[in-house]
Structure formats: structure tokens, C-alpha cells
Amino acid sequence: MEDFHFYTLPLTLLALLYAWFSIKRLYSGGGDTSPPSPPSLPVIGNLHQLGQLPHRSLSKLSRKHGPLMLLHFGPKPVLVVSSADVAKLILKTHDLAFADKPITDHLKTIFYDGNDVINLPYGDRWRKLRNIVLHELLNSSRVKSFASVREEETSLLMRKIEECTSLLAPVNLTVMLVALSNDLISRAAFGNKYSETEHGKIFLDGLDEASRLLANFMTLGDCFPWLAWTNRLSGRRAALKRIVEKRDIVLDKVVQDHLKSLNTSKENIMGILLGIHKGEIPGVSIDLESVKGVILDVFTAGTETTTTILIWVMTELMRHPAAMKKLQDEIRGVMKGKQLMAEDDLLKMPYLKAVIKEAFRLHPPLPVFARVARDHVNLMGYEISPGTIVLINAWEIGRDPAYWEEPEKFMPERFLNSSTDLRGFDFYLIPFGSGRRICPGIGFATAAVEYVVANLVFKFDWALPNGAKGEDLDVTERPGFAVGTDTPLIVVATINSDV
């Protein structure tokens, strides 16, 4: 936590206020009816224990203190959930009571004061916006309608890789998959590759910069309103303001360009949203601020998370050549005699789906997701006060030996002949969350990941440069909005001679 280290001295002086915060903590639910809690420091509580990779730090603490653990970020009570059984209580039994999301000043700055489906508080406005996203933008029919976009962009990716093979050059798969995800989302959202324009690059660079700034859960100013000045001193607020101003210039231009069009296209998300804004669907409405908020959600939740899981899938396949061979045999058997893959072909590839589920289990792109208690709740005999933040560690739940045999092992076979899926009904596998706040883009994301991975494995054989082995791959995690690998995946591709 850069902010914490930067302000160590003033925080030490503020420790004199410890007694006051102890009383505040008791008032917030820290008494005898509270869950187990690790020791904390005066004033800052457990903030210092988050670390660069919070999912790992929280996992280490929960293995010592239990699957339901109470921390304090300054005076704010924070529940940490690390088992499927407790997650089910939060996301199903008491789903309504925990239906809000925590939103900081920085998130409000980025997401139009929280006027987006990810951050809006639960209520009528959120339900209406959520229904638009689910029923008009990302329903199963709409996801299928983007099949041609997935096919065209994946075909372009294959050609880029072929060019590298003809030059006997290694492939930076990380860079290529980032570009692919940006182009997929850009075409689905805007109807064209806006990423190829100068304005589009500014927009995407701004999203990437904002993601890095939001890598930490909270700053000191979020935990202590009277320390909000630290965000100004650290430069975070100014940096975010600069990013938002540049982004809004681009997004406002896109909106105006679509509005000026006589026939707004209904083949992309922006066109559909603006059609709703103009009253083309009776009984459904949306303002321009929310149009921009939804578009921002699509990019934020779509690009980085899709890229992240694609890279993790290919990384694990490189590390496990037996799994790679088994997947190649399945896909090439289905495609025997065919050159071009159709999405219907994926229905005949159960091992492909198992590989992707296993990658999501081990490497959920958003390893920790958050809720906020809206009401007073008695949870497992503990009294939880309104306003308590809840952090659900999907990464730790996916590695819990109570649910998974050899949980640290990449073993796709565990999902063969299994009804476990990614839709949040099985609380021991929740990479997209669950309940009312489950990610609405699950169908779009999984369709893209399945199709891209199937083509990569079908059309190429893969190796590491200079004869390196899979176990030599650096799988150090990179902090960020979505937790990916810190080192680019550099590989050598050879064209499958049967294609």
C-alpha cells in the first residue's frame, strides 16, 4: 500500500487517537458478538496486512483465523469470507441484505458518480439498469449475434501469429491477447475498432491507467475522511481527474457521433443504449450519464478480465503439456477435415470447457469481490452492522481442500462429467460472483474465451523459446484490477500441418 508507507510518520503520531477508535470499533460491531479477528495496529487497524496481492494476504490470515474473519480498515469493519459455505450465506441466504457494493470517492470519480450497473446501490434505479443490461445488451441471443465479431477478430489473431511463424520469431501472446480483447469489446460496444483511432487509444490508455490506480482496495482517505487530503498530496486525485477528463472527451464524441447518425445501429451496445435513450423501447428509459456508465462497465469488466483469463489458460497449458496434448487431440478430432471453426463445434469439446473452468478456479481474474451490509444481519451467530464491508475471496474458495482434491494442481479432469459451472450456483466456484450482483457479462466472456483458446490450440503447436520447459515459466502475479501474470507470455508457435 503505497499511501500507507508514504505516510508512516504522520500515522504514528495519530496513534494517540487509538482510544477513540477503539470505542468507534466497538460501536461498529467489534464486541463479543463479532467474528474472530487478527491483532490490529492502533488507528489503522489491519490496513497494513493487505499487501500488494490482497487475495494472498487475506488467504494467509483466514487460514489462521477462520473462514469468516473480521478486520478493520481504520474504523471501518470488514468481513472476510473464505469458504463456500459462508459465501452461500452472504450471496444467497442473505443476498438482499448484502446487495450493495462499496464505492469510494475514486470510484465515484471514474464511474460517473456511481451511475453504472456495477456501482449503483441496490434499488429501483439499479434494477432498471440491470434489466437493460441483461435483457437488451447481454442476453443469450445478443451474445450469439456477436459470433461473427469473435470469428473475424480471432481469424485476424491467427494471421498475426502465422506471420511470426514465417519469420521464425517468438510470439508475445500477452500483447496479442490484449489487442484482441480490446478489439472484441470495441466492436461489440461501438460497432468498430475504435481502439485503432487516436481517440480510442487515449480512451483505452486511460482505462489501463485508472486500473493501476485502483489496484488497492482503499486509500487512507477512503478509510479516514479526515485524511482525504492525503489523496491530494499523493497525486492520486489529480491523476484520476486528468484521466477522467481525457476519457470523457472521447466518450462524449462517440455518443454524439452515434446520436448524429440518422439510423443508429442496433448491432452494437452503444446503438442499443442510445435507442433506449431516444425512447425506441416502450417502458424502458436511460439517461446519457448512465449510457456512458454502462459503456465504461463493459470496457472495464470486459477487456482486462478477458485478457487475464486467456493468458492464464495458455500459461497453464504451457506448464502442463499433457493437458495441452489432450486438448489438442479433442479439438483436432472434432475439426478433422474442417478448416474454419464454428461456435457450434465448441459444444463437442467437453475437455475445452473443463480446461477453462479449471483456469477460472485457480486464477479468477477478480480474486476478491466486495459487498456492503445494507441491514443488520445475524450471520452464524455474529451480529453484523449495516455498512460493514464484506470481502469474498474467490481465489481462496477455489483452492479450499474441503471442496477440491489436490487444490493447487491444474487438473481439468475434475470437471469432466461434473455439473459444476461458472454461473454462481456452485459457491465453491464463483469467478463471476453470484446472486443479484453476479457479473452480467459472463456469457459474453466465456463465449470469447472458449472460441479463442480452441483456435489457438487447433491451429498451432506451442513451445517455449530456447527449449525452456513449462516449469520454467514465471507465474508471478501482477497487482491490478484483474490479477494477471507479471511477465509477458513469450512463446514459439508452429502451424499445425493438418490445418
From TrEMBL:
Binding residues annotated for heme, in chain numbering: C439
Signal sequence region: none
Classification via SUPFAM superfamilies: Cytochrome P450
Membrane topology, as annotated: Single-pass membrane protein
Key word Oxidoreductase present: yes
Subcellular location: Membrane
Keywords on record: Heme, Iron, Metal-binding, Monooxygenase, Oxidoreductase
Keyword Transit peptide applies: no
GO molecular function, one term: oxidoreductase activity, acting on paired donors, with incorporation or reduction of molecular oxygen, reduced flavin or flavoprotein as one donor, and incorporation of one atom of oxygen
One cellular-component annotation, GO: membrane
One Gene Ontology term from the biological process aspect of the record: terpenoid biosynthetic process
Cofactor dependency: heme
CDD domains per the UniProt record, alphabetical: CYP71-like
Family: Belongs to the cytochrome P450 family.
Protein name: Cytochrome P450 71CS1
Source taxonomy: Eukaryota, Viridiplantae, Streptophyta, Embryophyta, Tracheophyta
Chain's gene name: CYP71CS1
